[in-house]
Amino acid sequence: MIRFINCIKKRDDISIENFRNYWQSQEFEDLLHRVIDITKAQHFTKNLTLDVEANVMIQAERGGGEPFDGIIEYWWDKGSELMDLYATDEAKKVRKEMMDYQHQFIDLAASSAFFTESQ
After folding, report:
1. Spatial separation of the C-alpha atoms in residues 4 and 36, rounded to whole Å
2. Which end of the chain is less congested by CB atoms within 10 angstroms, N or C?
3. Spatial distance between the Cα atoms of 8 and 11, rounded to a whole number of angstroms
4. Closest Cα partner for 15 from 105, 88, 85, 78?
5. Are 101 and 31 in contact (CB under 8 A)?
6. Are the C-beta atoms of 103 and 96 separated by less than 8 Å?
7. Strands, DSSP E only, in the chain?
8. Antiparallel, parallel or unpaired: β 43-48 and 70-76
9. CB-based contacts of 84: which residues, under 8 Å, 6+ apart?
10. Which domains does the chain have, with CATH numbers?
11. What is the C-alpha to C-alpha distance for residues 35 and 21, in angstroms, rounded to an integer?
């Protein structure tokens, strides 16, 4: 199983409420589902971090920083075709649209995105 994991930090100048409005918008949802269609992802999740005391306790216990504000994951059974699909003109177009949209509310430099493989 190949996973693309995107750990997202909101921009400092965006309130949590505004971040969540962008996150839950139909425009963002449509972009995410276009990525699913283009890349043929078998599974997808979009999660917001809870504002709960347990997260504060975990940070204190581990000496860690603030959690990411949200996480997006796409899953594929195999990654062999993924890069070919990623290189298509349609994929390039949706990536640009996604970046333009995300720049409005996400601190891309403070966020992290990477692929993983489960055995």
Report:
1. 12
2. C
3. 10
4. 105
5. yes
6. no
7. 2-8, 43-48, 70-76, 112-117
8. antiparallel
9. none
10. 2-117 (3.30.70.100)
11. 20
CA distance linking residue 64 with residue 60, whole number of Å: 7
> Cα(76)–Cα(99) distance, rounded to whole angstroms?
22
2-8, strands of its sheet edge to edge: 43-48, 70-76, 2-8, 112-117
- Tens of each residue's pLDDT in the chain, 119 residues: 999 999 999 999 999 999 999 999 999 999 999 999 999 999 999 999 988 888 888 888 998 888 899 999 999 988 878 888 888 899 899 999 999 999 999 999 999 999 999 87
CA–CA dist 9, 92 (Å, integer): 23
Q: Are 6 and 41 in contact (CB under 8 A)?
A: no
- Length in residues, the chain: 119
d(CA 108, CA 8): 7
pTM attached to this predicted model? 0.86
